[in-house]
Write a structure and sequence with these properties.
Beta-Lactamase; 18 strands; 706 residues; alpha+beta; 5 domains
Amino acid sequence: MLDIWSQFLSSDSFIPHGHCYLWKPGLVWLHLLSDTFIALAYYSIPLTLLYFVRRRQDLPFYWIFLLFSTFIVACGTTHLMAVWTLWHPVYWLSGALKAVTAIVSVFTAIVLIPIVPKALTLPSPAQLRQANEALQLQIADRIKAEQELKHYQIHLEQLVAERTTQIATSKQQVEASLLREQEARSQAETTKAELQIYVERLNLALDAAKMGSWAWDLSTDQLFWTPYHETIFGYEAGTPVRTYADWSNRVHPEDLPWVEKELQLALQNHTDFDVEHRVLLPNGQIRWIDGFGRATYTAQGNPVRMAGIVLDITQRKQAEATLRLSEETTKRQLAEIEAIYATAPVGLCVLDTQLRYIRINEYLAEINGFTIEQHIGQTVQEILGALGNIQAQFFQEVMEKGVPVLNQEVHGCLPKEPDIERDWLVNYYPLTDSQGGVMGINITVREITDLKRTEQFLTERAEELTRLNTILSQTTALLQERNQELDQFAYVVSHDLKAPLRAIANLSLWLEEDLADLLPAENRHQMELLRSRVYRMESLINGLLEYSRVGRMETAVQTVDVNQLLLEVVDSLSPNPAFTIDIASNLPTLTTKPLLMSQVFANLISNAVKHHHRASGRIQISVQEHAQFYDFAVADDGPGIDAQHHTKIFTIFQTLKPRDEQENTGVGLSIVKKIIETEGGTITLTSQLGAGSIFRFTWPKRPKAF
């Protein structure tokens, strides 16, 4: 019973009603004075009614006035309780007083219902006048009654005196109560000021700690929080009252489901709500929040209120992420170093300041001829002997100056193989601490014994190549001299051979003209055969000279439009109009030797016309472009060439028909082949009997002279 009564009068679970007014003095005083004067008015009305009832005891239903007085006193008491709960949240007691007031009010309303008809039956003033006249008749009887009434009046005066004494006593009690109320009010003002100072200190401490506090009323779904809480969540300043939806809208959408789940579990299990989550601000910024909350519950275990704090941990999270990334980077770098030490095709080791091995990889350990374990703790001199002494100056320079010594060639013999001279390329790097002091030496070793031997071999070969180049230069000069002699010889041969041949041809022609009437037809035919043999011999000499000049003549290089070049070649050949020569439209423009290209096309086109088995025919010239060259094709619809002769036709002086049937020196295709191959190309033939021929040749996009 005492627990129930204690809980009934307890105010620990609630906040004073003044919090609702934000302790604004004007608003608090407004409610305090209004409720106080209403209560005083309510208390004065019953006194007036009681006095009236006492003075008019002849009133019918006088007890209803007493009931009204009780109702009004109860109403006044609820207003006084409203003043009290501004500082003392005894809401159970306040609610009980309101319940009593409600009972009295309802009871009064119910009682009035049957009284109204009875009140309507009371006599009117006219009826009272008639009754008064009737009473005059009874005055005599009333005189006697007056005597008795005096007796009662004396008694009533005594009662009034007693009531007056009681009222005076009550007045003293009210004055004492007002005095106590003033004292309580003064004490409340002092407490309010102290509480305001405490709140300011608390807010200052929370702001200094970059923390915000909040309180959530589960019954109204309202949230109250401090200004720094608004700053953390990006709310407009000066709006401390929010709803649960305002808070949930700020929680990051990806975190909201599990955060709400944690909140519900805390409320259900009566545990603290303690989570770290993200909030998404309207400008897109993301912050990390550490939220803590603790709830209060009813006697039945139902949560009614939760309060807590929030802490902005964005910087901590960023630092943790940076640290985590740094750790991952460090782990990766360590793994890479371990992998390098395990797999690098170079020797790696670390020496301390006493030149003792503190780390070495398998590659270098094998070079030195000892295991890794045998190296650790041993000095370089103990492992390498004289080879370690050779490097002493490098060790000293790194230790004293703290700078690397790079690309030093070390030559010597290892203790394990004293008869084998070897070479190494060594780099020495200082291992420093955070203050720049040298803690040891990092060393990389690459064996270059084979490289040095190769360099020696290459040096010897270079010297030999220089000697050969000298011989080649001499040979080239001699070859140029021989070429000049050959050109001179060719000129002499051409002049000395072609002059008699022209004389023979001319003499035969003159004899034939002089003996025109006397020379038989057979002799005339023989004269024609003689001249044809002379002309053939001259053509052979010209072809031979042209063949010998291919590759030795300096030919001009120009920008050539192949389409225009072909038109000029065809025009110079003047083929039978019955022949159709199709030239592709995509022929290129390139930098080359136009004279050589003209010779190639002229020979191929003239051969296609000359060796055609009909008076009419078709020749097609096309091209395909490649990265470094063009692939030209000259195709005809002639008799074709048997596969067994595809190689023979490119040999000088070789023909497929007897010279008596067709005048041909057998030099043209050999010249074509030599020109193309001299310029860096190739030529091929695709043909079979009765199906025409296709000569394909490649031509570089840039001449060899470039």
